[in-house]
Write a structure and sequence with these properties.
alpha+beta; four-stranded antiparallel sheet; 6 helices; about 25% strand; globular; binds 2-acetamido-2-deoxy-beta-D-glucopyranose
């Protein structure tokens, strides 16, 4: 597994390609998965197979959807036909091997992707250990007219910023490299990691990661995307929520503490990427998000904000 190899290599590599697969990778051919004709043939086959099976075995219920999951298995089998691909000659800044970072599109509004098992347990624990000693109450960027007092309770976690260069084991550098590949956004555009801890009852009301100049004044650069790496499981609560997903709840009555909409349950090692800016560079109104209060357990998360300009710090 890529995951288990990762930590050992993270120490050795200084921005190299230790995260990569072998140079000759066996990738799954997608020839079948996107061909409508084969899907129709496949569905018909399973419909008929299901029809005959259900007439001989009355306990099988064709109406329950069981047949259709059978149909998906059928498709998966076709997809499993493997083809060997060779890496192409690459440019000066390119890689000599393939990267495979599995992801699931959770939403297009906002653009949000889930990366299961992005980091190993060991990597997560090493990041928590680094952050533990330096935790301070998290702060907020203040809008015009806001004060620390007036914004109390909006963000109640503790956290600290750590840059990859401060991590002598190279775990953060490794994670940064991997995020750069998952997003196609250069490493140099990332802020330092903000490692956060939420204890029972702690939360982050819904907010935008991008800074609207009309509320925050002129900005030197803007946050394009956010990558959250969940460093711990949370027994209950602590979900990342997108209350405006697909335009829902946007009638102006939404209470920013309310934990509704698309929710992502934190699981150790998993990644969540979402974009705050639309492709045309304006802030995506559906990228509003927050952290539901932790109900049981503790939530640790490492956040990487990625900007539209190179970050100097
Ligand atoms: C940017 O794109 C969004 C969504 O397509 C659109 O609603 C908005 O008007 C665009 N803004 C500009 C300035 O082009």
């Amino acid at each position: 597994m890529r995951g288990t190899k990762a930590l050992g290599q993270a120490g050795k590599q200084g921005g190299g390609s230790g995260w990569a697969l072998t140079s000759k990778s066996r990738l799954t051919s997608s020839r079948f998965s996107f061909s409508p004709a084969s899907l129709i043939v496949g569905s018909c086959f399973f419909f008929l197979a299901g029809f005959f099976l259900s007439s001989s075995l009355l306990s099988l219920d064709i109406g329950s959807g069981v047949r259709f999951s059978g149909g998906l298995d059928f498709r998966r089998k076709l997809e499993a036909e493997e083809r060997v691909y060779e890496p192409l000659p690459h440019g000066d800044t390119g890689d000599d091997s393939f990267t495979a970072v599995p992801s699931q599109v959770l939403s297009w509004k906002p653009r949000a992707l889930y990366f299961p098992n992005f980091a190993t347990k060991k990597q997560c624990e090493s990041i928590i250990k680094m952050a533990k000693s330096g935790l301070k109450p998290s702060t907020l960027a203040l809008r015009k007219g806001e004060t620390t007092e007036s914004t109390q309770g909006i963000r109640t976690s503790s956290g600290m910023f750590i840059s990859a260069s401060e991590d002598k084991y190279g775990v953060l550098a490794f994670i940064e490299e991997k995020i750069a590949r998952a997003t196609s956004l250069p490493r140099s555009h990332g802020e330092a990691f903000n490692v956060l801890r939420y204890e029972v009852g702690q939360r982050y009301n819904s907010h935008y990661d991008a800074f609207s100049p009309s509320e925050y004044g002129p900005q030197k650069s803007q946050r394009v995307a956010s990558f959250l790496l969940y460093l711990s499981d949370v027994e209950k609560g602590g979900e990342t929520m997108f209350p405006f997903e697909n335009g829902l709840n946007m009638d102006g009555n939404y209470d920013f503490r309310e934990c509704i909409g698309l929710k992502v349950k934190p699981q150790q090692g998993d990644g969540l990427l979402f974009y705050s800016l639309l492709p045309n560079g304006t802030i995506d109104p559906t990228s509003l998000h927050g952290s539901c209060p932790v109900i049981r357990g503790q939530k640790w998360v490492a956040t990487k904000w990625i900007r539209d300009q190179i970050q100097d710090d």
